[in-house]
Amino acid sequence: MATLGEPTNLIPPLSTDSASHEVASLMYVSPLRYDKNIQIEPYAAKSFEILDGGRHFRFELRDDIRWFDGTPLTAEDVEFTYRFMIDPKTPTAYAGDFLAIKEFRRTGKYTFEVWYEKPFARAVATWAQDILPRHALEGEDPANTRLARDPMGAGPYKLKQWVENQRVVLEANPDYFEGKPFIDEVVYRSVTDQTTQFLELKAGNLDYVGLTPPQYLFQTSGPDWDDKYRKYKYLASSYAYVAWNLEHPLFREKAVRQAMAHAISKQEIIKGALMGLGEPTIGHFKPDSWAYNRDIKDYAYDPGRALMLLASQGWTRRTPTGPLEKDGRPFAFTIITNQGNEQRIKACAIIQNQLARIGIQVKVRTIEWATFIKEFVNQRRFEAVLLAWSIPQDPDAFDVWHSSKIKAPGLNFVGYANPEADSLLEEGRAMLEPALRKPVYDRFQVVVHEDQPYCFLFTPYALPILTARIHGVDPAPAGISWNFTRWWIPRSQQKARLSQ
């Protein structure tokens, strides 16, 4: 398989990039998980109960799960994970779910219970997060531990080899409690642009890549492709956005950010960068989900309105085609994005052109993935950034938007702080019923839509393609990879494993 950027850290709570989480997802287990229909089911847990209206959870773990070194996975590991996550010294962006717990109590070797002060909407999703190994991680410095590159998990695959900037090789775990995966070895190859990935697919060096829209529409059709490959299309659980650094003088004022929304045509971006294979979006939730507010009227593409809003902030053009200026300074900034992602780079170029129409000078800079995340996004060293978020199954948006998450390593890296948004996020996560949460999240989206800390762009269609030698793929609401451990390859089409 191909990855645009290699992992940064294979201890899941300590990384925020998709490459790390994709690889780590095959190496750890969690008490609960989402099934093919995006419904919660037991995983490492043998059973669980929700009591007292959602304030009390009772878990019993399976007793046949082993860490890679043979040590049994027990409730001590879950308790360690909980305490690791709430420790202020742990550099994690995901502590919020665990900080909501009033009391954790280990009641036996394989049993534990948790209590909440009040019902917590993400309580179930909390226990779909990975369990960490107490015996391996206890006493380690989380910011400087070998386990970041040599993980101790209990999942279907374990690390065999990591060659920096080349590949990460996983091998099937013969002791995995659900049975050894059918595919013996998985190689994540670092191929840093999508055109090269496609050439490697055609050459037989890759089995699974995400296609670009032109590749999906025009370059993968015909009898030969139908015979040798299988391709899929479904709305992705993600959205792309331009994030404004709210600490930067250019973007502190809401009117300026609203002007940006009027000056950017989402439909033009979807047509030009995605060839129509995407849906415009106005907020943090997936357009086809129950939480999405379909009543919000999006900012119309209206350069004239954009210029009026900018004029209200002192930005004017001396001539109809001249640069936008204020106090003799041009309105100029740089959008950064990661190398290798054609859609994001094209979207940046389209936005650059759209903003030039109203006299705004935009430079586009692409940066290698690991450096992009570590040195620019995490360090808040940007004026504007074009990126995408994965959308979790539960619509709680606390970790990205609450003001308490501004401080690193929080995910609110633009510095968004609105007391009403904070209050709504707190209220929404204290409710269990979607019918009660819906109006709260609808209002939250209205608040963020007005503030425009991001210019929300689009939700793309996922366009995966696999070689036909891969069998057992079962497309479902959860995507195509939900049953990855049961994919298989006929013996006649198997390849030799990589040597150490």
Description:
The chain contains 16 helices and 23 strands. It has helices at 18-24, 75-86, 96-99, 123-126, 134-137, 194-202, 213-218, 223-228, 254-263, 266-274, 303-311, 342-356, 369-377, 398-401, 419-428, 434-451, and strands spanning 2-3, 32-34, 40-42, 45-51, 56-61, 101-106, 111-116, 157-163, 167-172, 185-190, 208-210, 229-231, 234-235, 238-244, 278-280, 316-317, 324-326, 329-330, 332-338, 361-367, 384-390, 454-462, 464-467. Helix 9 packs antiparallel against helix 11 and helix 10 (266-274) packs across helix 12. The model has no long low-confidence stretch (mean pLDDT 95). Helix content is 27%, strand content 22%. The protein is globular. The longest helix is centred in the C-terminal third of the chain and has 18 residues, at 434-451. By secondary structure, it is of the alpha+beta class. Strands 13, 14, 15, 19, 20, 21 and 22 form a seven-stranded mixed sheet that branches.
What global shape is seen?
globular
Number of helices: 16
> Please, what is the oligomeric state?
single chain
In whole angstroms, the N-to-C terminal distance is 18 Å
What share of residues is helical? 25-40%
Low-confidence blocks of residues: none
Largest sheet: 7 strands, mixed
Structural class: alpha+beta
The beta-strand count equals 23
Mean pLDDT over the residues: 95
Query: What percent of residues are in strands?
Result: 15-25%
> Radius of gyration, Cα only, in angstroms?
24 Å
